[in-house]
Structures are given as structure tokens and as C-alpha cells.
Amino acid sequence: MSNTQVITLRIPTDLKSRVARLAAEQGVSINQLVTYALTEKVTALEAERFLASAWRGKTEAEIFAEFDAVMAKIPERDVEEIPQWDHVQ
Predict the structure, then answer these.
(1) CB distance 28 to 18 below 8 Å
(2) Rounded (5°) CA angle 26-29-34
(3) 25-76 confidence digits (pLDDT tens)
């Protein structure tokens, strides 16, 4: 039994052409590209909803204070331990 479903989607001809071109450039099928793009957008919308809920009723100062508290838990690292490719330029 498959864990996928088929949907019919009507999109403008120009958009279909653009999607086909991008899929070909990426070396993937149109289905793979559209599934990736849809997944990316749905995930972003869900994250936006989650953050809005988590931040509801809090001031900007409270949000940043909570962020700073989390970041403070990350141990300090010596700059030499960080690979050169990961240094901020």
C-alpha cells in the first residue's frame, strides 16, 4: 500500500513551464520539485504559526531574554576549535 496520494492541480501555463525548466536544471522530476517546494512552504507556514503562538502575549524584550537564556547554555568554544570553513568572514 502506498503512502502517497494523487492530486490534480491547475496552474498557469507559464508557471508549469518554469517548474519544468527548474526541475530539468535540478535533474529531478516535476513531481519531485513540486513536492519539495510544497513541503518547504507548508513547513514554513507551520513554523510561523508555532512561533506566533509561542510569542503571543510576550514583549520583544521577553522574547529576546528567552533567546539569550537558551544561547547562554551553549558552551564557549575556542576559535581554533572551529574549522576555518565555518569562520565568519
Answers:
(1) no
(2) 90
(3) 999 999 999 999 999 999 999 999 999 999 999 999 999 999 999 999 998 8
Which residue type does 4 have? T
Between CA 54 and CA 72, with CA 44 as vertex, the angle to 5 degrees is 50
33-41 contacts at long range (C-beta below 8 A, 24 or more positions apart): 34/9
Q: Which residues lie closer than 8 Å to 58 by C-beta, 6 or more apart?
A: 66
Give the integer Cα–Cα distance in Å for 85 and 22. Answer: 29
Q: Any idea which residue has 535533474 for its cell?
A: 27
Beta strands in 1-89 (DSSP E): none
